[in-house]
Write a sequence for this structure.
């Protein structure tokens, strides 16, 4: 089944023009004026924009974490993604310490079979010995993995100490893969959590106090410095602070290759949420790094505008109210995570494009193309040209919506964007050349998503 | 006559792949594997790179300046450009104070009729009244001009004072054109020149003393601040200092749209040249801004790597030894200018790519694509895709050369790059689909070059 | 008449200790334990702090400006100063363009005869010719002036253009005097004022729009760069923006001698005051530079803490409601100025010391010692030691007050600090060894103040 | 025995004036004009400067380290100090892991009995358990220790990992003591050392390669961030890089209390010394952090000028050629350390004051007063006033000398300042009111030095 998009304004990371687009066999077959195709489903895109499907480089579908499992699985989570214009997610394989990386990888591949959208995986390095190094090699050579994740927080669990960072970054460099980090100083978090609990501060309001911005700034700078010392590139996930943004900027200004990712949530939600007198609402916002005082939002937007931050993500990891309640008496036991894979692009359009902070071309770069380039999926993904995958979103810049858990596709009953008015929404999403979402309705099937191989040595 | 490039490695600002390219009727007709064309001249590009033809955004061919006229005219200068892989220059129309902009523009258009390469013009704003504003409008609407230049130096001549900057930037913003500036504080230069002459310091060694880096830093920051206050974008020509680079960076980090251009010369030549005991050699290097102490070169390269500086140029303005001698007794009378349009790309390849500072893709961005985008010639220029102009350079990364005035195409007897060994040279240059330069030989004719219209509202 | 302060805690810019202080003949005669003096007025300072009397480096008593004259004259203004713990002011001699500097200086000296507190003068350079240079010399050699002020704003009035700045800074350097600047780009202000008036925006809310922060940042950087180029030190009055603070920091970090002054008002009042629906209240806050968006306050405090800003002032220039009303139909005609000489130290204590931003020693440095050093009055002023002038304030850190126009000593009916609760107030102020203010009562007489000679070549 | 200094120019951190100084019973008894004292040794200081005796905050006399013991013991080392104008050193007690802090402290106190100059101790935290915390308390309360040192390098030996830093900084904050750090990332150093050895790079040229500047920048930022998170001040010893200086500056600009120390050696010696073909000469320069590429020197001087670096030290730890030879086959076994306690002030005068980078007042602050303030010995030390300790240096700014191992007092046969010409040398040094050094001759006795108690809660 072919699809013909008629009369839309094509918006890429660097161009804007009006054209028809014909999609055949999952790829873009033709771009031009007055295209026709006898057997194609025709979608009128007049007055709409056609952009590369979004890529969310940071999600955790059905993640087993903190004694429970995230509610959105690869089926519901990726359906939500498509409803938001996102056609590919990069999720995380997180082996337990001492677990085989390949075993964990296979587990996640199995879970992801039911995905609606395309997907691919970062693999976390949570421990170290020679077998880990060897399995990294296998993942790169046989399984299309080109990025490895390191948690600098979560002491006594999956924290990677400096010796692991040094060993793993060295291995990444050797393989042409890119190391990524969750940057928070785990020792400080551990110290502050214990101190707060000792002081009897046990509610969600303690969460941000246990992870102040300096904790992230420190780890960001450490990861970058280690990478720089070794000659490796580095990618920082969920940059949420002025300090970390400044650390990235400093490194870039000194000639180092470093990338920063920012979450839609951190760009628009501040730490006043943790003062909510409704425990459930406050707990619903518990994620790490936490939401921040407002001036960090300014810094993040400046980072987006100036080029320090190149990608936008969500860290989508959906826990419902019942799960959050596990931390009723101890904020350190509240499962960390919030949803957002569906809202990311709308939020970035509203607060970025509509507020005059970024152009539509920059929007495309930030939601799709830059991620495709950094993780070496470009120009198969993140791109509108003949031969590229037909992952596209038809965007209606004039349509408005009020974001709400009442209407989102995610399986949980809360939205960190609850009540936000946005103008500019996805009307239709094409994934692999098929209409996967159209005007509120999910048309794709569980299992339609494809796994994306990502070769090493991305050209940055 | 068609041209078929076989087996080359296509390098654009964002991709690298092997393909054949067929050029027909001045444009790229086909890109693919195993292309053939009965009537085409076939060029074997195996082992070579094919890149977009260079664009030099800053030249002054046959400029009437300081009582003489630059030696390289639009014929010799653009032939030199083609020999260096550059297929388009942006030259400057510089009206005298009180002269009609349209009249000056027409004069430069006439002069440029004899160009070998493509060309287009920035127009300088050297004075102000309502007629100037009105003629800016005409230039934009009728003549394809989208950029206006302002000299913040050259007091008592063409210097634009703050009131002119404010008025002209405001007009540019209204028209969707981009203001550009030569950033040096003219009052300080004037003061220092007079002081040095009073002290009896009259030789070329006084030139850099009369224009220290703080003089450029000041003006750069002023131009950017004025533009920012008015909401206009801004482009700084020939950024030569750490201070100006920092000023650009500061503005970008605070969300403003500002672009910086760096000259090949400033990246690799330092101010020790002014200490040459041979007056002629020292004088040959007199240009403004002058060559700088070495630490500025580090800062400029960091600016290139980190994104503060997006384009590379030459300020090609060739004066011969006899002309330089006009300032024998007074350094302020030495005609300011040096050549470089031919060497720019080789110098940037050698010191940028070969030294590991930039990738080949970044080289393309810096020598061609970024300029095409900023001055709104993209994707007609700066691009390799079907339908784009067939302005291409076949680059041999393995071939070496020693740069020298003895072998360059420029009409003058001096080269600021004299003796530099480079590996990586243009083997063949295609301009408008025709072989314009091949292995040392200029094949184009005077007059082959075309004027490029540049529409306003570039999408940055 | 001698005064003996018993049992207070002496706080200087670098020390804190308990001691008695005996003041005789206008100077500190003895510091020690268990002092006694038969004929001395004894003041019990137990539980109080004794600090050097404040020095306000920026006031305008009875200034003729914008068609009227500031209400607080040298009598009422300096009485207010004493009531606030300030024992010396540095006011400004502002010659009209073409007026003799000496003539203006004499005028101000005459006006100041009636001062209660000590005083000295910066002299403004509002025009330039050889006679100005010559009179600067006379002022330095014969009249104890070591600082000259330059207004970079107020086009068509007292604005100093770049040629004047270059000439005057050069002269200052030659004389060992320090140039100071009011840093706002006058051309931009003029352009924006006209544009706003043309758009029919005539109220006080237009005032900050006509002087955005970038206007100050530009001028700050320009003044610093000019000074740096010439090798002169520079002092920036009333730094009110992040941009200007950053410009100072950049210069200091690059080895240049630059000082920054911040007003108590800019540290604690933000630009929401211009939105007041009561025209009179909004107009009462009209001063230049204007109050700023809140994030500038953070930047200023950071500048204070990190050392970019060394002195605190008020720009005390009091206009009453009737005077403000002159700009009823045109915001550019509202006399620029606010009061504060009385509240400065209390505000800085409350928001600085009590809020944990600065220590009491830093408070002394910021309110007194640093100004004494920069303007070369140290250790005569700004100091507690035997032989120093007995200008002292007995500070009660436990006493609270609500600041209000209802109770202040200034002649006007408005206070920009109205309603602010402070804890920490001056209980007693000694000026020239006499009790000038005590528990709410002014004891000094008009004319008690002395003129302070300031020699050149301050040791910074 | 009293000493009367006649006619010298007194230079303190903030003042310069001519006066006589009478020293009695170890303290300054009188400062004034035309002083006389019947029983005093009179020293004519006409044309000389009198400054507070230098304080070197970082020495290691007779340190047991890397299998040997530093050659200069507390006798020879402190005699050298006095010959260089330094009257107090702060040395380091370095307990072995698991060793009692008190036991180690007592050991060092015993060793120091033979000192000529005054001395006091930082105590290193090289391991952690409750007893360490408890002994820190005892050291503070009973032994006048107010600073604790942490080595972030030297893995598998005395390295303090993040958990120790967090625990110890927290304890310091509780006690009012200041934590200090040797900032190098020990994991990276360890990794690079092993890699170099594996590659067969075993000579002194490998030393700087194993400790690149990013290794120091990382650790500096980490230590500062941890301190900032906990609310503690922090002092960085031997800052040798642009990165660490920038990290300090960043923290200070954001309101944190952080101090930086720079070694005389790092200010003037660069890393070309490791390329010396004479193994012994190269090895003689092995210390950590190593000497750096030249641009770091610029950055350090800028840090000194702008206030990021407040103290100067030497890390005096003298190993002779025979000791250095222990690392003949393995650079990691070359004992780390160089001498300098004698040359520090002369080097700083020559390259700082004579080169126009700092004023004589700043020289005093950098060599004495700032250290006295930070480590709470002011105004007993670092000060010239009645009642202060009579630790003074009579400085002859006109006398020249060539620094050389041939003439220095240190016990080793090498000087990193060999051959440096300096103008400005100590002529006479008074320690505790006695002439300890005069025109080349040591007059003090072993044991004349006193231990200095340093109370907590320094007023910064
Ligand atoms: Zn994370
Ligand atoms: Zn995550
Ligand atoms: Zn120019
Ligand atoms: Zn030019
Ligand atoms: Zn002013
Ligand atoms: Zn003023
Ligand atoms: Zn050390
Ligand atoms: Zn040490």
């Amino acid at each position: 089944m072919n699809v013909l998009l008629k009369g839309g304004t094509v918006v890429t990371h660097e161009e804007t023009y009006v054209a028809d687009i014909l999609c055949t066999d999952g790829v873009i077959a033709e771009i031009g004026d007055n295209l026709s195709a006898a057997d194609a489903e025709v979608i009128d895109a007049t007055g709409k924009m056609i952009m590369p499907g979004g890529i969310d480089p940071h999600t955790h579908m059905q993640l087993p974490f903190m004694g429970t499992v995230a509610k959105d699985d690869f089926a519901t989570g990726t359906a939500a993604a498509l409803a938001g214009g996102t056609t590919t997610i990069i999720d995380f394989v997180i082996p337990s310490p001492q677990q085989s990386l390949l075993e964990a990888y296979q587990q996640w591949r199995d879970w992801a079979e039911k995905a609606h959208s395309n997907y691919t995986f970062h693999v976390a390095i949570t421990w170290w010995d020679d077998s880990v190094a060897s399995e990294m090699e296998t993942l790169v050579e046989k399984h299309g993995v080109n990025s490895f994740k390191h948690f600098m927080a979560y002491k006594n669990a999956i924290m990677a100490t400096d010796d692991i960072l040094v060993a793993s970054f060295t291995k990444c460099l050797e393989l042409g893969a890119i190391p990524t980090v969750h940057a928070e100083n785990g020792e400080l978090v551990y110290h502050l959590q214990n101190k707060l609990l000792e002081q009897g501060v046990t509610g969600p309001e303690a969460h941000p106090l246990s992870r102040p911005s300096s904790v992230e700034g420190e780890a960001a700078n450490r990861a970058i410095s280690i990478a720089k010392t070794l000659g490796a590139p580095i990618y920082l996930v969920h940059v949420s602070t002025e300090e970390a943004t400044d650390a990235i900027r400093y490194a870039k200004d000194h000639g180092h290759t470093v990338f920063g990712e920012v979450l839609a949530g951190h760009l628009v939600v501040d730490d006043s949420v943790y003062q909510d007198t409704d425990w459930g609402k406050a707990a619903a916002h518990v994620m790490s790094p936490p939401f921040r005082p407002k001036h960090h939002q300014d810094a993040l937007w400046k980072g987006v505008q100036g080029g320090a931050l190149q990608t936008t993500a969500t860290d989508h990891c959906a826990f419902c109210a019942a799960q959050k309640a596990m931390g009723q008496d101890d904020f350190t036991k509240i499962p960390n995570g919030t949803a957002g894979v569906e809202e990311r692009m709308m939020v970035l359009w509203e607060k970025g494009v509509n507020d005059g902070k970024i152009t539509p071309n920059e929007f495309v770069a930030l939601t799709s193309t830059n991620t495709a380039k950094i993780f070496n999926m470009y120009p198969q993904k993140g791109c509108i040209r003949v031969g590229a995958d037909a992952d596209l979103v038809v965007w209606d810049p004039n349509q408005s919506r009020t974001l709400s858990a009442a209407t989102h596709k995610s399986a949980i009953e809360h939205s960190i964007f609850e009540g936000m008015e946005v103008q500019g929404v996805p009307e239709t999403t094409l994934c692999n050349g098929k209409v996967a979402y159209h005007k509120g309705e999910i048309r794709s099937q569980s299992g339609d998503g494809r796994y994306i191989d990502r070769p090493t040595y991305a050209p940055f």
Observations:
- Chain C has 14 helices and 19 strands.
